[in-house]
């Protein structure tokens, strides 16, 4: 997929795999797609490509496919779409981001930030758009009570199931991307922590029948993330004045998202689900609404929000420190211009300047 200049690395070497991982993985995806064309391999290929665990109900004498549930075969589907995300990542990197990188001549640090934001921005925007669309169709807002009255949501529409399959697959694909994108060692720990938290929370909501609640929280969370990704792209491109407004918008939406997430979680998990609490977990019906699980859900969300708020504060402090030299330079230059203007040096019209000029001529 990538056309590299110069000598090609040896086949199956580490550098060869990194440079051509998009082509290699796309060929793997094509093998699954070709499997749909043959009757002998079609059932196996469908397990990886099509949504599994469908539930059919008889409606007015007709067999109609209506909903989906969760199951072990979802692991095969998640694996396939993780490969698809790797291909999408490689396409965006080569045909969009690399062209901008060549134009702006960025440093290695900015290069990594630009690539991260450029790959995640489309995902965040698409995730918010699909989530809002499904929330409106399911009428979850403004009827918030449906979020706990409809629990457990063991059956999902195709779009809701596919949404969560793609969400889980996306964050899984981020782990091999650390290798493919040659991520710096000091950045790996932070990114692995972030990817693991996404994967843990989304997978837990999917398995524990909390898809409707998770979809609203994800939509809220992804809005400031999308603004931050867009702003960082603008900042790396050198548009510092424009990016300063973007960082301000991100800061406001970030704080609002944290408040909204904690408030909704307390309302839904503690007060809403508390009305229909059960004594023991019922795995058959998919009901995990016990007091212990609810406390664990609430504590996990609040702790993660606190951790994100702490990272946000540290980020703002670092930005302020980085901007101090530039501010000091601007202040010094401004004071110098003011002093020169008072002494008449700005237009070379003061008596002292004229006298010095006359002495030089003599």
From TrEMBL:
Q: Where is this region: Disordered?
A: 324-362
The question of whether Ribosomal protein is a record keyword is answered with no
User: Does Membrane count among this protein's keywords?
Assistant: yes
Q: Which residues cross the membrane?
A: 21-40, 78-97, 118-136, 156-180, 192-209, 247-273, 293-315
InterPro entries from the UniProt entry: TLC-dom, Translocation_assoc_membrane
- List the membrane topology term(s): Multi-pass membrane protein
Ranges of residues in domain TLC = 112-323
Which Gene Ontology terms describe the biological processes this protein takes part in?
protein insertion into ER membrane; SRP-dependent cotranslational protein targeting to membrane, translocation
PROSITE patterns documented for this protein:
TLC
What keywords are assigned to this protein?
Answer: Membrane, Protein transport, Translocation, Transmembrane, Transmembrane helix, Transport
- Cellular component terms, GO, for this chain's entry? endoplasmic reticulum membrane
- Where is this protein chiefly located? membrane
Q: Where does the record say this protein resides?
A: Membrane
Highest taxon of the lineage = Eukaryota
In which family does this protein belong, per the annotation? Belongs to the TRAM family.
This chain's protein is named: Translocating chain-associated membrane protein
Q: Which organism is it from?
A: Clytia hemisphaerica
């Amino acid at each position: 997929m990538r056309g590299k200049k110069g000598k090609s690395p040896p086949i199956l070497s580490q550098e060869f795999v990194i440079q051509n991982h998009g082509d290699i993985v796309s060929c793997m995806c094509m093998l699954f797609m070709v499997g749909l064309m043959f009757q002998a391999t079609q059932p196996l290929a469908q397990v990886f490509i099509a949504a599994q665990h469908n539930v059919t109900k008889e409606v007015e004498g007709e067999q109609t496919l209506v909903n989906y549930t969760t199951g072990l075969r979802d692991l095969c589907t998640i694996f396939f779409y993780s490969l698809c995300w790797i291909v999408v990542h490689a396409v965006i990197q080569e045909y969009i981001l690399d062209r901008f990188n060549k134009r702006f001549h960025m440093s290695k640090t900015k290069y990594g930030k630009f690539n991260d934001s450029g790959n995640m921005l489309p995902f965040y925007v698409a995730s918010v758009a699909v989530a809002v669309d499904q929330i409106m169709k399911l009428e979850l807002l403004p009827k918030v009570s449906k979020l706990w009255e409809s629990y457990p949501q063991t059956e999902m529409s195709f779009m809701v199931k596919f949404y969560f399959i793609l969400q889980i697959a996306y964050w899984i694909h981020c782990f091999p991307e650390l290798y493919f994108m040659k991520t710096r060692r000091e950045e790996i720990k932070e990114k692995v922590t972030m990817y693991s938290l996404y994967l843990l929370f989304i997978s837990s909501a999917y398995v524990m029948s909390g898809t409707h609640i998770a979809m609203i929280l994800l939509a809220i969370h992804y809005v400031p993330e999308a603004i931050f990704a867009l702003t960082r792209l603008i900042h790396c491109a050198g548009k510092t004045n424009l990016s300063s407004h973007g960082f301000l918008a991100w800061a406001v939406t970030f704080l609002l998202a944290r408040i909204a997430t904690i408030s909704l979680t307390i309302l839904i998990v503690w007060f809403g689900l508390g009305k229909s609490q059960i004594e023991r977990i019922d795995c058959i019906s998919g009901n995990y609404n016990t007091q212990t699980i609810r406390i664990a859900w609430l504590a996990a969300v609040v702790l993660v929000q606190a951790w994100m708020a702490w990272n946000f504060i540290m980020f703002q402090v670092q930005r302020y420190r980085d901007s101090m030299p530039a501010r000091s330079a601007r202040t010094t230059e401004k004071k110098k211009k003011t002093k020169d203007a008072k002494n008449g040096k700005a237009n070379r019209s003061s008596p002292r300047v004229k006298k010095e000029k006359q002495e030089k001529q003599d």
